[in-house]
Design a protein that fits this description.
Layout (H helix, E strand, L loop, with lengths): L3 H11 L5 H12 L8 H21 L11 H4 L1 H10 L2 E6 L5 H11 L7 E6 L2 H14 L8 E4 L4 E2 L6 E5 H7 L9 E6 L7 H13 L7 E6 L4 H7 L5 E4 L6 E5 L8 H15 L4 E5 L3 H14 L4 E5 L5 H5 L9 E5 L12 E6 L2 E8 L4 E8 L2 H9 L7 E5 L3 H6 L14 H10 L15 H14 L10 H8 L4 H12 L3 H12 L11 H8 L8 H18 L2 H10 L4 H18 L13 H6 L1 H11 L4 E4 L6 E2 L5 E4 L12 E9 L3 E8 L4 H5 L5 E10 L4 E10 L2 E9 L5 H14 L8 H20 L8 H9 L9 H8 L14 H4 L15 E4 L2 E8 L8 E7 L19 H10 L3 H4 L5 H11 L7 H13 L20 E5 L5 E5 L2 H7 L1 H13 L2 H4 L18 E2 L5 E9 L2 E7 L2 H19 L1 H15 L10 H16 L8 H9 L1 H31 L5 H14 L4 H4 L8 H14 L4 H15 ...
Parallel strand pairs: 1-7, 1-8, 2-5, 2-6, 3-5, 6-7, 9-16, 10-12, 10-13, 11-12, 13-16, 15-20, 19-21, 27-28
Antiparallel strand pairs: 3-4, 14-15, 17-18, 17-20, 18-19, 20-21, 22-23, 23-24, 25-26, 26-27, 28-29, 30-31, 31-32
Pfam family, one: OB_NTP_bind
GO molecular function, one term: RNA helicase activity
Keywords: ATP-binding, Helicase, Hydrolase, Nucleotide-binding
Length: about 1250
């Protein structure tokens, strides 16, 4: 057996002749070796095999390597070979076209590199990796994939024979997970480092750490414009080798735009000037974005009709991109974004017009969104643009900005590490165990806010925990060569049973949108795209496009498939790229059959998948949410950001309440792209670790029999939903406290247990005693009562169901433990004896009224309430209620004393003593309370008081009577402090109650009749007693135009109603006399009474009613004999009516004559005419016959005569009339109604002012009018 030390020595001697990967593997074997059991012979055989593999690789190296003589790198071959050989790290700077990209791998081969491992050569883009590999393979005369291979995300052509491997920088990054020290390589070339992408910067930092562990590894970094000194310092002062380019001289012109000029005009003017000198050169114009390209292309096409205007940007369909590579024909104007700076070389360019701007992608750490703002490009980028016109000959670059502005710009473009979301890099570093991101050796250290934002996103996705440690899910995400969001979606699909569909959409989000929307064919493109669009989800639009692509591919040839894509405005290349990414995801996550890309394809199947698929998408896009703002087309997103749906989305016109989106991008506005409608409830399932739950408003729920709360769900500060939840599962102790208080102490339980009914009855009895005694200190407080139950119930009883289970435990009578005694509900030391001074009923007028008490200061219900049945509303003496009850009488009298004026109140000091003495010496039998107090007080003190000295309305509510009117079922109808007020407001209800009671009593029913045509019901008694023991008063009544017989609630109401009813019945029986009176009225009035408010028939009826009052003692007619006797005296009635008609006709004719004279005045003296018109219109208004008091009846003719005299005098003394009118006018507006008693004082005043000779009655004046108004 060979000793382990000897084996180690042999390995060290053989190490330079081994592949680096093999040497590392052998070292690990020896490090883990157990001396007793290690198979030395096998190790030596493996070592020999390793040496053979190295020899085999040496044999693959080409015998001769040729270099194109025209390349500057070829001319510096010897110096470069020496520099690479002598240094571990070399910085190579060379202008575009120097040949460094294609020749450096060949120089490494010439030096023997590639023998111990691959020569790895990274490129920023897939296309470059493939095309450079193809070029090098061609120069080495070897098929692609053998000596020279390449690998991109979608293609791998590398074999065991490969010595040189071209790849994207992302591929090399991915390999770090399985080969941290890059033992598969002996040389690494990082090309195009000036682009400073995130991947490039990460690789540069990684290599800095790696080189001390891999002294055998060579690193070459190439750049066109990168600051070489800075890169040299990064690699410990590595040497810099500069290679001159092949470019022709470029003339720079600075031609800044004026403030007034448009960019379109400035570009056109610049092209115009360039072509004046040499019209055969093509022009490359650098613009910031696609929109600017489309706007300018239309303008330039019109100004330069002979030129070919070509757009160039990354989203442009491949066929249109290819047009820029075709030279010849008319002069070309290529309008490009910064894609033409380094990514694409446009042939034949002699002129460059540089607007100096580009759309730059920056991640906003504040808003958490990608911003695409137009910014000024750096000096390095501007020089790169200028160099594009020096490839085929001397060129000219016109910069549309000033030279001093160029000088003030930053030297280099900000690296992506300072502009991007770092989540992907942080995840890679966590997977590789590289420690803190901020301690990593970056060329430019990212801002701490960027780092925090990256960590936040990974924690949101569940890739890192709260301590920033990698989770199991994080390792799975890191395993996929996808953006962390997209990888999360791909993984989530497995959990929601839509794996393949989620992989399809994850792949779609990893490539550019395959939909093409050329400006010149936009309507046609949208029409075609509508064939697979989905109304609620742009993601399902993509899925349905995928299904269409699969259908096309089943039977179509490759050529036909390309044509179908073109006809439907879909990018064939992007669809292929999409499918390639899908297969890669399926290979990593699924079984082999999953690569067949079979997904839900029917509308029904897709709709069935809507919820699970969008929940899978939400897992990766959980912070790309939006809640629609009310009455706006905007959405509120996490962290206060607001955005709109991108106009190109199907959902832009019918915005959902909630949405998620693939990206939120800030261009001209903040837009959500690739949008779908979602339900907020999904987030509680998809991201429970992010959803915050707050329980609010815990309260007893009597229906559920438990304490319920409203649980509010929110995410990122956005309200999601709320739901009712059992509070006991959140806070059992809090729920129990509420249960004890509301359910048991307050008794809010349906189907109350017997013990609880008894306990609540005990508490109610004590409350009743408190209200009567106005002592709120008898009942124990609620915490004390709750403590009673708390001491007797287990801690887990806080619902009705739990209480019932505990009560019904077999073999135990637990309810007895919960029964309270009076001592349990009384406050400690309380005396519950009730005084006889607070009765629960009052016997009054032969009836028993229920009394209730409330101790509720500040409310109308405070004090004692008298419950009055409506049937007794008019049967009770009002004065009794002022006495309240004996227990409150002293306090009421004391309160009344305190309302006395000070001079009187001083005779009653101390008031409480006087009140008690008065209360002890008075009783309700004395009648009204206030007169009784006055009489007794005078007897006690000799001081005279009057009831008007007191102010009962000022007393507190509990010292005033509260009368509650109730119907026959005891339901409250109304309440007031005055019985008279209730009688006035509840007349209708009282009459209805009386009628209802009378109908139920046969003896009373005879006095209720709906229509009476003659006195055929016998003699009317003064009153009748109803079954309710209430008194009712029979009377005739006019109701709805006919006479009825009714029982009324009071003697007064019955008397008033009976007069009107008897009169109506008499007039109905005197039909012949009424007809004669109407004919006479028509004959006397005719059509002459213009403006008369009454018709002759109505006037006759009013006069007859007035005459009836004079002719008969209507109130005394209560028997059939009296009624018949009145009919016998109809002659007297006829004479009275005729005389009254004659008198009224004289008034009306006089008024008509006055109006005629007033019209003859025209517009003269308007004040006088207005006053006269008001006088006539009011005095003889509709109903004047009934309204004019009997005392004023003889004076109406005088008032009209005075008005006539006034008109006679008006032309001679208009000023005098105006002055007199001014005295009257203010009082007219103060009349509360037209024929108020003050009206007749006013009319007498008019007589005194305008016709003194007619002698006014009562010495009228303004003072008399005022007195009449206040009477």
């Amino acid at each position: 057996m060979t000793d382990l030390a000897d084996l180690r020595a042999r390995l060290e001697r053989a190490r330079p002749e081994l592949l680096a990967r093999d040497a590392q593997q052998f070292s690990r074997q020896l490090a883990r070796a157990d001396k007793a059991r290690f198979d030395s012979a096998r190790f030596l055989r493996d070592l020999a095999a390793g040496l053979a593999r190295r020899s085999a690789r040496d044999a693959l190296r080409p015998a001769t390597i040729r270099y194109p003589a025209e390349l500057p790198v070829s001319q510096a071959r010897e110096e470069l070979l020496a520099a690479i050989r002598d240094h571990q790290v070399l910085i190579v700077c060379g202008e575009t076209g120097s040949g460094k990209t294609t020749q450096l791998p060949k120089l490494c081969l010439e030096l023997g590199r590639g023998s111990r491992g691959l020569i790895g050569h990274t490129q920023p883009r897939r296309l470059a990796a493939r095309s450079v590999a193809t070029r090098i393979a061609k120069e080495l005369d070897t098929p692609i994939g053998e000596l020279v291979g390449f690998e991109t995300r979608f293609d791998r052509r590398v074999s065991e024979k490969s010595l040189v491997k071209l790849m994207t920088d992302g591929i090399l990054l991915a390999e770090l997970q399985s080969d941290r020290d890059l033992f598969a390589y002996d040389t690494i070339i990082i090309d195009e480092a000036h682009e400073r992408s995130l991947n490039i910067d990460f690789l540069l930092g990684w290599l800095k750490r790696l080189l001390p562990r891999r002294p055998d590894l060579k690193v070459i970094v190439t750049s066109a414009t990168l600051d070489p000194e800075r890169l040299s310092r990064h690699f410990n002062d590595a040497p810099i080798f500069t290679v001159e380019g092949r470019a022709y001289p470029v003339t720079l012109r600075y031609q800044p735009e004026s403030e007034e000029a448009e960019t379109e005009d400035a570009v056109a003017d610049a092209i115009d000037q360039l072509w004046k000198g040499r019209p055969d050169g093509d022009v490359l114009v650098f613009l910031p974005g696609e929109r600017e390209i489309h706007d300018l292309s239309r303008s330039l096409a019109g100004r330069f009709p002979r030129a070919q205007v070509l757009p160039l940007y990354s989203r442009l369909p491949a066929a249109q991109q290819d047009r820029v590579f075709s030279t010849g024909g008319p002069p070309r104007i290529v309008l490009s974004t910064n894609v033409a700076e380094t990514s694409v070389t446009v042939p034949g360019i002699r002129y460059v017009v540089d607007t100096g701007t580009a759309r730059m992608s920056r991640w906003s750490t504040r808003l958490g969104i990608q911003q695409l703002h137009i910014e000024a490009v750096s000096q390095a980028a501007a020089n790169q643009r200028a160099g594009r016109c020096g490839r085929v000959g001397p060129g000219t670059c016109v910069r549309l900005y000033a030279a001093d502005e160029f000088a003030s710009r930053p030297l280099f473009t900000d690296p992506e590490v300072l502009r991007a979301n770092l989540a992907g890099v942080i995840l890679q570093m966590a997977t590789l165990g590289l420690g803190d991101v901020e301690e990593f050796p970056w060329l430019d250290s990212p801002d701490s806010r960027q780092v925090s934002e990256g960590y936040r996103l990974l924690q949101t996705l569940g890739a890192l925990d709260d301590e920033r440690a990698l989770t199991k899910l994080g390792r799975e995400i890191a395993r996929l060569p996808l953006d962390p969001r997209v990888a999360r979606i791909a993984l989530a699909g497995r959990d929601t049973n839509c794996a393949r569909e989620s992989w399809v959409l994850a792949a779609a989000l990893s490539v550019q949108d395959p939909h093409e929307n050329p400006p010149e064919s936009l309507p046609q493109a949208r029409q075609k795209h509508a064939e697979w669009s989905h109304p609620r989800s742009d993601f399902l639009t993509l899925l349905q496009l995928w299904n269409r692509w699969q259908e096309w591919g089943e039977n179509a040839s490759n050529r036909q498939l390309r044509k179908l894509c073109k006809d439907h405005y879909v990018s064939y290349l992007r669809m292929e790229e999409w499918e390639s990414v899908y297969r890669q995801i399926a290979d990593l996550l699924g079984e082999r059959e999953d690569r067949k890309a079979v997904v839900a394809s029917t509308p029904e199947a897709i709709e069935k998948l809507y919820v699970p698929l969008h929940q899978a998408l939400l897992a990766g896009l959980v912070d790309h949410l939006g809640l629609k703002l009310p009455e706006k087309a905007e959405y509120q997103g996490p962290r206060g950001r607001r955005f709109k749906i991108f106009p190109g989305s199907k959902l832009a016109k019918k915005a959902p309440q909630w949405l998620m989106c693939a990206a939120i991008v800030h261009t001209s506005q903040i837009f959500a792209r690739t949008v779908a409608a979602i339900e907020p409830e999904w987030l509680t399932v998809v991201a429970p670790h992010l959803v915050k739950r707050v329980a609010q408003q815990p309260e007893w729920n009597i229906q559920r029999g438990e304490v319920s709360c409203t649980e509010h769900f929110s995410i990122f500060g956005m309200p999601l939903m709320k739901q009712l939840r059992h509070y006991g599962t959140i806070d059992p102790a809090g729920a129990r406290s509420i249960f004890l208080l509301d359910a048991l102490v307050r008794g809010e339980i349906t189907n109350k247990p017997t013990f609880l009914q008894q306990n609540l009855k005990l508490a109610d009895d004590v409350r009743e005693k408190e209200a009567r005694l106005r002592r709120p200190d008898l009942l124990a407080d609620e915490p004390t009562l709750a403590a009673f139950y708390d001491q007797r119930l287990p801690a887990d009883v806080f619902t009705v169901a739990a209480l019932k289970r505990w009560l019904h435990t077999p073999g135990q009578n637990r309810a007895n433990a919960l029964r309270m005694r009076e001592a349990d509900v009384l406050r400690s030391g309380a005396d519950a004896d009730i005084a006889s001074q607070f009765p629960d009923h009052l016997d009054l007028a032969g009836h028993r009224l229920r009394l209730s008490y409330a101790h509720d200061p500040g409310t109308d219900a405070d004090g004692v309430s008298f419950h009055v049945p409506i049937a007794l509303l008019y049967a009770l003496p009002a004065e009794r209620f002022d006495w309240l009850v004996p227990g409150l009488l002293p306090a009421r009298i004391e309160g009344l004393i305190r309302t006395l004026p000070q001079p009187l109140r001083r005779h009653c000091v101390p008031a409480a003593d006087y009140a008690m003495a008065l209360a002890n010496s008075l009783s309700p039998e004395a009648g009204e309370l206030l007169p009784a107090i006055c009489t007794r007080f005078h007897a006690m003190t000799g001081v005279s008081l009057s009831p008007g000295d007191f102010a009962p309305a000022k007393l507190d509510a509990h010292l005033q009577p509260r009368l509650v009117l109730e119907d026959e079922r005891g339901r409250k109808l109304a309440e007031d402090k005055s019985l008279a007020a209730l009688q006035g407001s509840q007349t209708g209800a009282a009459r209805a109650a009386l009628a209802s009671s009378a109908v139920q009593d046969e003896a009373s029913r005879r006095w209720v009749r709906e229509k009476v045509l003659d006195w055929d019901f016998g003699d009317l008694p003064d009153s009748v007693q109803l079954p309710t023991r209430a008194q009712a008063y029979p009377a005739l009544q006019v109701r709805d135009g006919h006479v009825a017989l009714a029982l009324l609630e009071s003697r007064e109401a019955a008397a008033k109603s009976h007069v009107q009813g008897v009169r109506a019945l008499l007039l109905a029986r005197l039909g012949d006399r009424m007809r004669d009176l109407a004919r006479t009225a028509k004959a006397k009035l005719g059509l002459s009474q213009i403006g008369l408010a009454l018709s002759p028939d109505a006037l006759a009826l009013s006069i007859a009613a007035r005459a009836a009052l004079r002719a008969w003692p209507l109130a005394q007619i209560r028997t059939q004999a009296a009624f018949q006797d009145a009919l016998q005296h109809r002659g007297e009635f006829g004479r009275l009516a005729a005389a009254m008609l004659e008198q009224v006709c004289e008034w009306l004719n006089a008024a008509a004559e006055l109006r005629k004279r007033m019209r003859a005045l025209g517009t003269a003296w308007p004040e006088a005419r207005a006053d006269l018109a008001e006088q006539l219109d009011t005095m003889l208004a509709a109903g004047f016959v009934d309204a004019i008091p009997e005392a004023q009846w003889p004076r109406i003719a005088t008032y009209l005569k005075a008005a006539s005299i006034r008109l006679d005098r008006l032309p001679n003394k208009p000023q005098r009339d105006l002055e007199l009118t001014a005295q009257i006018k203010p009082w007219i507006s103060k009349l509360p109604r037209p024929l108020h008693p003050a009206r007749w004082v006013l009319e007498e005043w008019r007589v005194a002012l305008f016709a003194q000779e007619l002698r006014a009655e009562g010495a009228p004046s303004a003072t008399r009018v005022r007195d009449a108004l206040t009477a």
